Every structure is written in structure tokens, then in C-alpha cells.
Amino acid sequence: MSVYTSISDKRFSEILKAYSLGDFVRSQGIQAGIENTNYFITTTTGEYVFTLFEKINQQQITIYISLLQELSMAGIACPQPQLDNNKQAINKIKNKPFTLVTRLTGENATSVNKIQCQAIAIELAKIHSASFSGLSPSNPLLQNRRGKTWRENVSNKILNELCSNDANLLSSELNYYQSFDDSLLPKGIIHADLFKDNALFEGDQLCGVIDFYDACYDSYIYDIAITVNAWCIDQSCTDEKGKLVNNLVNSFLQGYQSIRPLEDSEIKAWPTMLRIAATRFWLSRLEDSLFPNSAVSEPGLLTHSKNPNEYRMILQNHIKTATACESVI
Q1: Domain 114-327's class?
Q2: Which of 15, 167, 265, 292 is deepest in the core (most CB within 10 A)?
Q3: Is residue 9 within 8 Å of 27, Cβ to Cβ?
Q4: Which CATH number is associated with domain 9-102?
Q5: Comparing C-alpha atoms, which of 77, 78, 79, 82 is closest to residue 100?
Q6: What is the pLDDT of residues 185-218, one digit of tens each?
Q7: How far is CA 300 from CA 6, 33, 295, 307, in A?
Q8: Interval 24-42: pLDDT, tens
Q9: Is 167 helix (H, G, I), strand (E, B) or coil?
Q10: Does this chain's domain 9-102 share its CATH topology with 114-327?
């Protein structure tokens, strides 16, 4: 989340006239994240999150709205889309689509502990175990827009911009993935971006999961690897930085498997999936760093660019250790 497109309080007051959410009180730009324009909106009836979509088209947002509705029916704590007086969840300003959803309570975890890791793992397993009757896996809009083809395209785009060490590392990884077959892995709807800033806690109690904009149909173990890379990595300023913290990974995987046990094929794929998941975010951060604001119409007014070196370090550590599931359970 960021603010690329500035919206005045007067404009927010006008927007709210189309909803039955009370009168406008105040707005606050949200800096966390990197893709969309986001504000917290306070009205006389409650707290909401306004999102102006800078990159995602309206068809993709329709899928996102349907996903939130089905997640809610499955008992997942997530934002609730708000309908305007014409029963529409998606509207437009400045020729861009926007939505209003409920603002969940809680705050992002700063220093992660085993209880929080277990809680987020259980919620992820519940998402993976949910039935999404209204979302067809064959829908092209549910395919992972940052999957294999995207990795290759972005790599071709940025390779000449990288130093020789990074270019060699990236080329080597892409070659390594060519022989990896994920066609038989269990698949379904995944979050695909469950970082610490996309979960809200009160103490160790999980209040909810947000930011399903990258949700797609892909392998569950890929989603687990993304989340473990985000939650279970040493963040200290020591030689251990960027390495898996085994007791956190252990708590995470135990919590996950209390809801959905891993299959043998997933355990076998685990070391490679950790690397693919790390490469995905190394690439997206490199692209954002090298080509800032390339997909938005005006410069960011309140933006947050994430450091690509963090995920290069994570990737390098996965290559060195080739950690398997058995070693951390």
C-alpha cells in the first residue's frame, strides 16, 4: 500500500455520498506496500480502507471482491467489501477503479514469535482448505500473474541493469528452475503475498489477514514458502541475517499441518520452492527499484520501496543450506 494518487478530503466527502457509511470525518494516507493508492477513512459510523488500483484492472478487482466474500463465508477474518447505494462494490475516480472495505482491528507484528507464526500458519491452512465455489481455477484472471513467465520476462528486462554477481545469480537460478516440475503438486487459491504487513494482531491474537490482491490459483507449498520467507527469517544484524530460524519454521509448519498435512510431493519440493519464492520477491523489488512508478500515472506522493537485497540474501542462504522439511519439523 502507498499513495501514488493524491485525493483530497473534499473528494472523499463527495465519494461517501454514494454510500450509506456515514459522513466523512478524516483520511490518512497509508505508506506500507508498493502497488496501490491507499487511505484509512474515518466516518461517523466506522473505519474503512479506501484503495485506488494503480495496476490491477476492473476484472481482476471483481475476482478480488468475490474472493473476500467467499473467504468470509469460510470463516476467514478478512476485510468486507462495502457496496454503494446502487449495490456496486467497485467505482471509479480519475479513471481508475477503487473500493472501500472495512478496516480490521489490530496492528502488524514487529518482532515475530512462535505463537504468531503458528497463528498465521493455521489461518493460511484454513485458506488453503476453503472451498471457493464461485471461483473457477480455469479462469485466466486467477492464474499467477507473477509466475514462471513473469519471472523470465522481468529477468530479461533487468539483467543488463544488474552487477555481474547478481546477473550470474539470477541466470543460474532461472536455469535451475527449468528442470523443476510443479504440475502434480496440490493446488488451489493462495494468498501469494502474506507478509507481516498483511496480517493484524492484538498481542499474539491474530485479528485478520488483508491484501488479497495477488491471490491466485497456484501450489499451496509455494504459498507456504512465500510466508515462511516473510515470517521465519532472521532479521538481526548478525551473520545469521537472512537465514531460516528453525524454531519459527517448526512452529509454523506444525501449526499449518494441524489443519492441512503436507503431502510427500510438497515436502520433496520444499527446498526448491523456498528458492522460487525468494526469487519472485527479489525480482519484483529489483523491478520496482530499477523502474520506479512505471505502472502509475503520477509520481508517488507517499510511497514505500522495499529493499531487493533482503531477498537476494534469503535466496543465497537457501541455495547454501538446501533446507528440507524434515530438518525443521
Answers
A1: alpha beta
A2: 15
A3: yes
A4: 3.30.200.20
A5: 82
A6: 999 999 999 999 999 999 999 999 999 989 999 9
A7: 9, 12, 11, 17
A8: 999 999 876 567 899 999 9
A9: helix
A10: no
